[in-house]
Design brief:
By secondary structure, the chain is mainly α. The chain has helices spanning about 10-30, 35-45, 50-60, 60-70, 75-85. It has one domain (about 5-95). α1 (about 10-30) packs antiparallel against α2, α1 packs parallel to α3 (about 50-60) and α1 packs across α4.
């Protein structure tokens, strides 16, 4: 049996998470910073395979995860929550409505 955490979401949900993760990184130091360019180059080619959505979220500190959560649609938050819940992760508190 494969936990939901390790299964890819719909492309729509994945793309939303990826977009907002990049925007959170950009907000930290600006789009021209070396930090952002490094993160962007690491993330831009990551595809919607297995647990890559959760990997993108895990790259953020928990303070930045809180910023991310505020930007996500209810549908996407629910998809993340269900994946965290499937592995009994404490972090579900950030995604539960």
């Amino acid at each position: 049996m494969t936990w939901l955490y390790y299964k890819e979401p719909s492309d729509e949900v994945f793309d939303e998470v990826k977009k907002w993760v990049l925007k959170v990184f950009k907000s930290l130091e600006g789009k021209d910073s070396l930090y952002y360019k490094e993160k962007e180059s690491e993330i831009k080619n990551i595809g919607n395979v297995k647990d890559n959505m959760m990997y993108l979220i895990a790259r953020l500190s928990w303070n930045n995860v809180k910023k991310l959560v505020k930007k996500l649609t209810p549908k996407t938050k629910k998809e993340v929550y269900k994946r965290l819940e499937s592995v009994w992760a404490y972090e579900t508190i950030y995604f539960k409505d």
